[in-house]
Structure prediction request, 592 residues.
Amino acid sequence: MKSQYKTEIFYNYIIIGILLILTLSFLLPFIVVLSTSLISEAEWAERGGHVLYPKKISFVAYDILFGKSYVLFNAYQITFLRVTLGTFCNLLFTTTLAYALAQRDLPYRIPLTFFVFFTMVFNGGLIPQFLLVDFLNLRNTIFALFVPTLVNGWYFLIMRNFFMNIPKDLIDAAIIDGASPVRILISVVLPLSMPVMATIGLFYAVYHWNEWFYASIYITDNQLKPMQIILRGLLNQATMEGMENISFMEQPPPGASLRAALIIFSTVPILVVYPFIQRYFVKGIMIGGVKG
Amino acid sequence: MKKIWKYRFYYYLALPGLIYFAIFHYVPMGGALIAFKDISPFDGLRGFFDAPWVGFKHFERFTSSVYFLDVIENTLIISGLKILFGFPAPIILALLLNEVLRMSLKRIMQTISYLPHFISWVVTAGMITALLATSGGLLTETINDFTGSNINFLGNKDYFVGILVTSHVWKTIGWSSIIYLAAMSSIDPSLYESARIDGANRLQMAWHITLPSIMFVIVIMFLLEIGNLLEAGFEQILLLYSPSVYKVADIIDTFVYREGLLALKYSFAAAVGLFKAVIAFVLLYTANRLANRLGQTGLW
Prediction:
């Protein structure tokens, strides 16, 4: 019995040891970037990139960042607009469609749902999609950043499943009370769906915050470039796109600590928020996964 | 008809979403027909009806080009390696986390493991560069100290795919483990109790109870991965690759992007894209049919 107890403790240590190493590996890149952002270019050059922790803290990189921040401030605004407007429209269109197609005895429900399903397994590809956005004159407008991805098929499914699982008794009771469909939606269904709306809304919001590729092909106007585009340009100074942004910043190729400060600057909002919102995400995955 | 009128409110509700799908998904499917035409780079879709039909010319050019085999091979190798390492990893992580007895510790570790999921690929690529840059990269410089050789990780064909797979696993492992942990939390605790009475140790319980109990989820997730076999990680590769690693890193998606949006060979690139879409459709459809047959719900 005694030895079994010992193996048990040994087992626990091994598991926790492996997990600690893993956890550290998730954090390490962030620690390196944070430390690099907190030292001067001189210290960085002197240490030749061996920066795990800052020896002497310097906020020079952040000063430069905020001093020449017109571009960054503008990019932040575009991203903010994209996140708010985009997420709002995403949610509006996803919820209405999902709620309508969640009505079990809606005529033509199956073919209409299939109309959405089919787009999840087959698509026309990048080029026709790009040419369509070009044809509709959406390029270099804020709409190019969310209209082409207005409703995500998976999120539609999660929402539809959620609506389908609302107890029918609640709806029936409201009908007996003489409530109209609009009334039922607003007073019965919506209050119940706040958690799923929050979850899906956050999915969309994080997508908009992080999305880079579509913005890079649809937006060429400097004034409309969101955060990730500017960030990419500055982090990747080797490309033409990068050079253009750097001249825009009036600062020759940004040094390592400035690049690191940029990463921190663009990531902090998410880092601060995600531990608090992750439970919604987890919930969303469960709704979507368990009965997907 | 009367019934439709009765439900008119719901049709109005569905209409905006359905119009979105019609315009932004079904029109591009029709637009993919430019693969059989010669569209001018200046007119784009405006010249759709005037452009001459050329049959399978662009498909034949693709299948007979020197890039064809490379691009297909790279897509399958990168995607296959990502499945090989990236698929079991979150299951192992979930099994490990499931063995942590102190709930607070488990929760902190879980939260940290989700961190990479919330970071954009642009930032991730920036961090990879910060670690692997030839001059000043933490890892490169450290290796340089010990061996005296300066390795150009991101520009080297031998390392590039490894970097892709590693960063993919790093970014997805925590987030993908959620679904397995959720499945584990619904295992009946009495199973463990009776196993303990029978003298099973924790490793045996993990192997004989936990793993079989989540097998259904594992199979469904695996089918999903197979369905997405042609998605080798477009954004990640686009952000990290360079001409010196095209030979191993160029996948169908990046090829379509360069040929179509950089070289403006719209029709040719659309043909390559359609080629991929058709194969992807077969994969996704088959994966979904299998999943449906296995479980009462399946993916949909």
User: Anything to note?
Assistant: Confidence is low (pLDDT under 50) at residues 238-252 of chain A.
